[in-house]
Design goal:
binds iron/sulfur cluster
Length: about 325
């Protein structure tokens, strides 16, 4: 990507030594873990908190991915790094084989040097970006590996692909380091977040996180020559059956409190998965209806501005 517009933000931080200082500041948070709003306050060198993850990076898979939003996958793919485990416990997790089976990954930890080599391998395969999927609980190791890889020629942008349950303190340490933020905005009702993801304050924390992210990158986009996003914000909203995601209220908050020009990716791919069954969570035990999708898409058209929204409905759900 050299010579094709602005470089990744972390390159300047690496050159000044600031990237290594940020890694150290993030690592310090692991000793009494407050990396995410759960604030488990465990020493991750010896104990496990809710995310069941120690201090070494645990990666389920890394490879070029062509199924993300068009501006993320581009022509050559997004360099996805799927982090194992998660700081949330969503009953419908569409990725539960990776996020909710810590025992399966107990012996899969890598060193940060190995993780840095994985980043470089994705760049060598032509990927447009490094896409950290569910990075929140492993961000110290990711940033340490980024510093190592930058010394060895890494230069593609970093995408922070998060569930949105992030700490503002941690996000401040990522200012200028992350180029593209892709946070979820899962719910607008705290009671739904408690029941479906196991945290009682999801809307409040996700909105605080988004406010900080917006402060860093705003609502403008910088695109590369293939139309790939080089810098900016894309908010993901997975539409759930029975209005459980509270899409309209989330959009109203985004438009009114931050900006109506923020780009939104509205996702229709919900399927019953993981702990969802007709007896456990009956409201979620089916796919989205056409009417539910159309209502969410209409709210997006009504409340938000701009033409950068990414809408991934199946063909029968025209936007
Ligand atoms: S990152 Fe893990 S251990 Fe740390 S506060 Fe969050 S869930 Fe708890």
């Amino acid at each position: 990507m050299s010579g094709d517009g602005p470089g990744a933000g972390y390159l300047a931080l690496a050159a000044s030594g600031e990237l290594a200082r940020r890694a150290a500041a993030l690592e310090a948070l692991l000793r009494d873990c407050t990396l995410c709003p759960r604030r488990c306050r465990v020493d991750r060198r010896r104990e496990l908190g809710s995310c069941a993850t120690g201090i070494d990076p645990v990666v389920a898979a890394f490879h070029p991915h062509f199924g993300e939003e068009r501006v993320i996958s581009g022509r050559h793919g997004s360099g996805t790094v799927f982090l194992a485990n998660c700081n949330l416990a969503c009953v419908f997790c569409q990725n539960h084989e990776i996020s909710q089976r810590p025992a399966a990954f107990r012996r899969a930890a890598m060193t940060t040097a190995e993780l840095a080599r994985a980043f470089l391998a994705l760049q060598a395969q032509g990927c447009h970006n490094l896409n950290w999927v569910s990075p929140t609980h492993q961000v110290p190791a990711l940033v340490r590996a980024l510093a190592l890889a930058a010394e060895q020629g890494l230069e593609i942008p970093v995408v922070y692909n998060t569930n949105g349950y992030d700490s503002v303190e941690v996000l401040r340490l990522l200012d200028g380091l992350v180029d593209v933020y892709m946070p979820d905005l899962k719910y607008s009702d705290p009671e739904v977040g408690r029941e479906l993801s196991g945290v009682a304050d999801y809307p409040q924390r996700a909105r605080e996180a988004l406010t900080e992210i917006f402060r860093q990158v705003g609502d403008d986009w910088v695109l590369g020559p293939d139309g790939e996003l080089r810098r900016g914000l894309l908010v993901r909203i997975l539409v759930l059956p029975e209005g459980l995601a509270g899409v309209e209220e989330s959009l109203r908050w985004l438009a009114g409190s931050l900006s109506p020009r923020i780009a939104v990716s509205l996702l229709a791919q919900y399927r019953p998965a993981h702990r969802v069954s007709a007896s456990s969570f009956p409201a979620l035990a089916r796919s989205l209806s056409g009417h539910e999708w159309q209502s969410a898409a209409a709210a997006l058209r009504r409340l938000m501005r701009g033409d950068r929204h990414q809408v991934q409905g199946p063909p029968r759900f025209a936007y």
